[in-house]
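Handout, page 2. Input:
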Amino acid sequence: VYLPPDTNTLLSVTDHCLRSRHYVNVIVAGKQPELQWLDMDAAIKHCTAGLGIWEWASNDQDGDPDVVMACCGDVPTLETLAAVEILRQHFPDLKIRVINVVDLMTLQPQSEHPHGLSDKDFDILFTRDKPIIFAFHGYPWLIHRLTYRRTNHQQMHVRGYKEEGTTTTPFDMVVLNELDRFHLAGDVIDRVPGLDSRAAYVKQYLRDKLLDHTNYIHKHGEDMPEIRDWNWSLGKSGEPAPGR
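Output:
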């Protein structure tokens, strides 16, 4: 089961699926324009591994992360990166590791699926004791079922589809299912030890943004420009930022 987050990863997994034999492959991809996160070479490497750390979105290279933010699916990836940007702007010392999952079966143990990660590799990526905020395109319980044997499963908090929503704006559908950037950022504040004591103003900012969103769509019938036109802006060392 593949959930590519952008066009290049979609091309890579489609090429893999068309070449495979004796498999039932499922690709979950949207039909709307999406931001592009990886160039083709990076996309092939990422899809071959099935999941991995996005170093350009992470800032934990010098030590252990304070929190792992994982995502699987195009919209969850977008919202996770937007949440990371909010958190890094308000808490520049917060160490965040961003992990994107393309191949859902990598979350299972090797004993259950040939694409599964070993327990050691899973612990290295997701840590053994840090909070994990996981944004998923489908039902949250599926992630829990795939990872319940893992060391750090108790620290895993999954946001996903809750069968909420009707005809509304794209971002409002995400908000109604509490999979949006503001809920994800709030989850990090609630679960990282010591962060809540200095986050009162940020929590209020997140609440106000959700109210602004609701008021705006009721008045204009479309998402706020800052949502529609959002793009990753935290480039490193003068390198062009992904998402163009």
